[in-house]
Amino acid sequence: MTSPARRHFQRVTAALAAADAGDQPMQGAAYELMQAALFEDYRRLKSTQSMERKAEIKREILPNYADYVAGVLEFGQGAQDDVLMRVMLWRIDAGDIAGAVAIARYAIKHDLNPPDQFERGTAAIIAEEVADQALKLLDAEGADVLALVTHLIDVEVLTRQADMHDQVRAKLFKSLGYALRAAGQLSEALATLERALELNDKVGVKKDIERLEREIRQAEAQHQQQDAADQA
């Protein structure tokens, strides 16, 4: 385990490097150290075939980058930072959506580019990857539904003005709609799924919309019956 002194040193050196870089690409000893660690971790992940195991490895290694990321986010001026962008994606895969969104805010504010193999922009990547991860988490037992609603709303607001394919934005609204439904916010879920359908009629929510409409009608009927009984 890294000592508190070592963690403080990593955070401070990252902050200084980010401040010194300005809006130029990141460089310096702190960044090069993280790049070297990233290369070794990336190679380890590439040699692993199981997606489940990859996610486990990412959860294992991500704390090693936490202090570097904290320093950059605190004092960075928008320098292109491939380590930061890779950590953002790994955090999504590991289920740390809150941590990924924290980086995404900085990345979108400063117009940082994603890693080279991605053809989409940063906003589209964060929207689609978070939507996909949220759908996975909603299918799992014990999902923190209210936290997912918050994170998905944050991503929707963060990427609202960005240009991206309608199919990507539709997926984001779909996942948000499902999270709202799981949280019991039926009317909000219905409106959100309807928006997803407007953006992409093949997004796969038509039956969910019909089901929600029935549930809302039933809930309203029960409410009216209860009101009538209370007044009797």
Automatic annotation (TrEMBL):
TPR repeats lie at residues 170-203. GO terms for molecular function: DNA binding; endonuclease activity. Keywords: Coiled coil, TPR repeat. Residues 202-229 form a coiled coil. This is Uncharacterized protein. It comes from Litchfieldella anticariensis (strain DSM 16096 / CECT 5854 / CIP 108499 / LMG 22089 / FP35).
